[in-house]
Specification:
four-stranded antiparallel β-sheet, binds adenosine monophosphate, alpha+beta, binds magnesium ion
Length: 342
């Protein structure tokens, strides 16, 4: 069984932009999901098209299934001693991903690809792997063996069979790059929906913040809460996004690198809000694996993101930085909420 939900973070257009403001939207399929880029103001159509082009270019560069991509070239040379030339952007993304693996060891690792393959998440044949297959795949997961040479501009996987999968960070990276393209074109108000990654560029044209709903993981037509965003990304990760069922058990696509099995940390979803779009995407995946206690501990140690944690006990835990624009909508869905404070 397969269920793919286009977007679980839903932009809520509570106020339409003022009369006379140009608006343009690009809707397209990229990075395995439905995306939309909505731009307001002068030159909106050209800017939206340029931002879309940037996202599609990054998809070609970062995809692991497109054999011409830079990442496929890196993976193809695993273990053969070749340092593969990367462009500056891809190298930066690989370095960043390695640094997240060091920050949250055991929760996040982009060399998880062989394990994704063992579960069949890369293609259509999804199944529980046998113990030997899983153990062999797990032995290849170690981003310390992803060697990056910033000076030479190369990356290398030091063991045969290793592979990189940027599924956890590609959309956040694309959001950052698309925003830069929009800014270059003079855009000051836009909303990017890159599939569970909603990026607000500036405020709405009337100066108010954007309002974005966090969906109920069990029913994406319902909101658990609404958040205010301005120059920020809200990125959601959840086990309900992509999954299959075998012998009555559900298995999803976010893997705990400690076990090789889908993460089972007591969370149904994690939404990370940050002005660093890439960080939001990386942390939503990592903190979903980490679970509520470790996620809140990590949040307390930093000041560059906020969280909405949705637990399997129907609790919404919302960090204090979101309190101002927060609107709870989960009561009728059987949810409670609490504000987490430092
Ligand atoms: P996201 O939707 O951003 O949470 O990313 C989920 C995707 O990240 C999966 O489809 C895999 O491609 C990849 N992935 C799964 N588990 C991990 C993990 N523990 N660390 C890094 N990437 C992962
Ligand atoms: Mg992510």
């Amino acid at each position: 069984m397969k269920r793919v939900i286009a977007s679980l973070l839903i932009p809520v257009f509570l106020l339409l932009p003022g009369c006379g403001v140009q608006e343009a939207q690009e809707q397209f399929f990229s990075m395995d999901t439905v995306m939309s880029i909505t731009v307001y103001g002068k030159g909106a159509a050209e800017a939206a098209a340029a931002a879309r082009q940037e996202v599609e270019m990054l998809n070609d560069q970062l995809s692991r299934t497109d054999e011409n991509s830079l990442i496929s070239q890196l993976n193809a040379h695993a273990g053969d001693g070749t340092a593969v030339p990367m462009d500056a952007d891809t190298l930066e993304l690989l370095s960043f991903s390695k640094s997240v693996a060091q920050l949250l060891p055991g929760d996040f690792d982009i060399t998880i690809a062989p394990v994704m393959d063992a579960w069949g998440f890369t293609g259509e044949d999804r199944h529980v792997p046998d113990d030997d297959t899983l153990a062999a795949a797990m032995a290849l997961v170690d981003s310390n063996k992803l060697l990056i040479d910033e000076t030479a501009g190369t990356a290398q996987l030091s063991e045969a069979g290793m592979a990189v999968d940027l599924g956890a960070v590609a959309k956040g990276y694309a959001a950052a790059k698309a925003e830069a393209v929009l800014r270059e074109q003079g855009v000051t108000s836009a909303l990017l929906d890159l599939g569970r990654n909603i990026t607000a560029v500036g405020p709405k044209t009337n100066g108010d913040p954007w309002r974005v709903g966090v969906a109920d993981p069990e029913d994406d037509s319902q909101y658990l809460c609404i958040l205010s965003l301005e120059d920020q990304t809200a990125s959601t990760s959840g086990g309900y996004e992509r999954w299959f069922e075998e012998n009555g058990v559900r298995y999803h696509h976010i893997i705990d690198p400690k076990t090789g099995y889908p993460a089972d940390s007591g969370l149904l979803s994690v939404t990370v809000i940050s002005s660093n779009h890439l960080l939001a995407d990386a942390l939503s995946t990592s903190l979903f694996v980490a679970g509520p206690e470790e996620a809140l501990e990590f949040w307390k140690s930093r000041d560059d993101f906020e969280l909405v944690l949705c637990t399997d006990q129907k609790q919404l835990i919302v960090t204090e930085g979101l309190e101002a624009g927060f609107e709870f909508r989960g009561e009728e869905l059987g949810y409670d909420y609490q504000i987490a404070r430092r």
